[in-house]
Amino acid sequence: MLFCYSVDALSKKPSNPSPYQRKENYRQDDLSIEDIARLCGTGHCWRAGIYDLNNGTFKKKDARATQLIALDFDKVETSPYNVIEYAANVGLPVSFWYPSFSMNPETLKKEAKSADSTCVLISNLLSRQVQNGDFGSKNGTYKDRWNYRIVWCLKRQISPREYECVYKALLGLFGKFSPDRATKDCSRLWYGGKLGYEVVNQEPLEMALIGRIMALDKVSSGTEPNKAMKQKKNFIPEYADMPTPDAVLVNEGWYRKLQGRCKLWDRWTKGDYLDYNERLALFSNLRFLRYSDKNRFVLQDVLKFFVPETYEGHTCDEGQIRQKFRDSSLKPCPIVKGPLGVSQTIPEFLSQNIDIPIVPNLSKVPLENLDKWMDEHVPQFLDDREAGIKILKSQTASGKTERIINYLLTKVELEKTKVIYAAPKHSNLEEVETRLFNKATFNQIALIHRCPQKEITQSDLLYLQLGLPAKTRSAKRKGFIDKLFSPDEKGLFLLTHSLLTNLSNLDADLIIVDEEIDSSLIKETKLGLTNLATTIPFLDLQTSQELTKFINDVKDRKRDEGLAIDLTILREKVAPQVEERLDSYIQSTQTSSIAVGLFECYKTDGRLSKDNAGNNCVRMVRKSTLIGDAKLNGIPVRVFTATPLSKRTEMYYGVEIEVIEAPLAENKGKIVQFCGLSGARGMHNDNFPKIAQYIKEKLPQEVIDKSILITFKGSKEEVDFWQSQGFNVAENKGNQIHLLNNSGLDCFKGKSLIIAGKSDLPQQAYQDYYDDCHESPQELTRQNQVIELNGVRQSLYLFEDEEMRKLQLQNIQSNTEQSAGRARALREEGATVYLFSNLVIRDADEVIDR
Question: What separation in angstroms does the CA of 650 have from each of 606, 657, 704?
Answer without folding.
Answer: 22, 7, 41
